[in-house]
Amino acid sequence: MSVASQAKGQNQEILRVEKLNKSFGTNHVLKDATLTLRKGELKVLIGPSGGGKSTLLQCMNFLIPPDSGRIWLDGVEILGHKKRELYAYRQQVGMIFQDFNLFDHLSALGNVRIALTRVRGMSRKDATDRAMAELDRVGLAAKAGLYPAQLSGGQKQRVSIARALAMDPKVLLLDEPTSALDPELIGEVLAVVKDLATAGMTMIMATHQITFSAQLASEFVFMEQGAIIEHDSPAALLAPGACTRTKAFCAKINELTGEPV
Amino acid sequence: MLEEYWLFASERVMPGLNAALLVSARLIVPSALYGALLGVITGAIRVYGPKPVRRVADAYVSLFRGTPLVVQLYFWYFALPYIRVGGFAIVLDAMQASILGFALCSAAYQSEYIRGGLLSIRSGQIKAARALGMNPMQTVLHVVLPQAVRRALPGCGNEVVYLIKYSSLASIITVNELTGTARSIAKATFRPIEAYATVAVYYLLLVTLAVWLLRWLEDRMSIPGFERPRD
Ligand SMILES: Nc1ncnc2c1ncn2[C@@H]1O[C@H](COP(=O)(O)OP(=O)(O)OP(=O)(O)O)[C@@H](O)[C@H]1O
Ligand SMILES: [Mg+2]
Question: How far apart are the CA of A251 and the nearest CA of chain B, in angstroms?
Fold first, then answer.
């Protein structure tokens, strides 16, 4: 790291996307999405279902190749068609899915270890040590030998977070990590997210957990019909008297879940 | 009567069949292995291959599933030598022609099970693998195939059981395996009941052994979440 970029400290840009567009047929689901993630910040994507949150997150690591737009990681532009660079880029951008997507044939340990040995080329022993450390970090060292079918939803999601963390990502993309969980299991996953935020992990998370994320997020990004409509600190968007789409949306959600804004 | 049958079978039938058993094994084992390997490759191509290659693989499977195995064997044994490419012709002995025929036919069926297994893997897991930086080859090798093979194993096992039985067709292109030998014994001794009943027992034992081995393999590879209902 150069002295200049070190000096930037907290303001250092990690991931920047500019004018991402994506259409499925005639359905224009992502419209000129532009945002910047700075080191250590947590941005929270909110908005109605079908608004394009998942599409945006998956365009950010080219799981869905955007039709147009540009992406930079640490100031270096990523070109989606250069396969080798793309695979290297994805190793640095962790992704957490709503339905976990653990590899069903591997134990929790195996899930965390596989990319270390097969993609990073680490030795089995080093990879095992690293994977155990990550499982320990999410509180699942004791469950390392269990298979996905033997884990609860919350445990599965924590394993998937450990799997992403083991790759030393510079940024994490979380797509509604708690939406598939029973209410009593949401807390354990949010606790891990909170630990990560406290530890300075750079993250962008789509979620409907408004109250939780209002406490941690540096910014709320409100998406509707494929476009980023509003983005600002939660305090500003939800301030008493503020007349924002975000506030109206959050009020509606919290009415449903019974939480105050 | 039974005693007399046993005496004849053990003195006149079984020595010949025991020797023939080895021939059958030398047919079945390589056919099953090549068939499984080619079946996995074909199945993977049919799901992940580029379109033109996929078409070729589909055509191969249709052809080999849609024609009688006897015709295929005749072709490899009797017709292949007449196909000359630049003055060269491939002449297979009966054993090689049988193994080629069985492996190709078995692979066509195996590929169906593998294809089904591959398609059963949820697309989310493939997304997760790619999100970790795996290239398509690593994704298939380390994420998709290990699961697909487990899901396909019962079907593939059945196919091996069929292979044991249709290996008897090699006798019609002069291979003296179990069935061919039983026929010779029946003709020479005029005791077809004893000859064919005994050879049937040999096949039954082979199939039982194969089923037992496959069960063991399935158990060894079994993983929570991949169990299959046991009958
Ligand atoms: N593979 C696809 N093919 C066609 N249309 C798609 C595809 N994926 C998403 N869409 C459409 O894109 C739009 C945005 O979907 P997206 O999943 O990004 O929304 P979301 O904000 O994540 O919603 P949710 O809160 O329900 O997860 C929707 O109208 C959806 O139907
Ligand atoms: Mg979504």
Answer: 32
Measured from the Cβ of residue A195, the count of other Cβ atoms closer than 10 Å reads 14
pLDDT band at A3 (very low <50, low <70, confident <90, very high): very low
| Global pTM exceeds 0.95 | no
Show the domain range for B92. Answer: 2-220
In this structure, is residue B19 part of a structural domain? yes
Q: Do A87 and B125 touch (CB under 8 A)?
A: no
How many structural domains does chain B have? 1
Domain presence at residue B226: no
Cβ–Cβ below 8 Å for B223 and A105? yes
Q: What CATH number did the domain enclosing B38 receive?
A: 1.10.3720.10
Question: Which residue has tokens 């930079």?
Answer: A72
pLDDT of residue B229: 55
Res. A146: pLDDT tops 80: yes
- Residue B120, min C-alpha distance to chain A (Å): 12
Q: What would the pLDDT profile of A66-111 be if each residue is shown by its tens digit?
A: 999 999 999 999 998 899 999 999 999 999 999 999 999 999 999 9
B224 touches chain A (CB under 8 A): yes
Write the pLDDT tens digit of every residue in B59-88.
999 999 999 999 999 999 999 999 888 888
Provide residues of A within 8 Å CB-CB of chain B. 58, 61, 63, 83, 87-91, 93-95, 97, 99, 101-105, 114-115, 118-119, 146-150, 160, 163-164, 167
Nearest chain B residue to A97 by CA: give it: B128
pLDDT of residue B85: 84
Q: Which residues of A touch B143 (CB under 8 A)?
A: 103, 114
CB contact under 8 A, A115 and B125: no
Closest-lying ligand 1 atom to the alpha carbon of residue A51: 21
User: Looking at residue A234, what is its pLDDT?
Assistant: 86
Specify if B199 maps to a domain: yes
Is A221's C-beta closer than 6 angstroms to any atom of ligand 1? no
Q: What is the mean pLDDT of residues A195-200?
A: 94
Q: Is residue B55 part of a domain?
A: yes
A-chain residue closest to B127, CA distance: A63
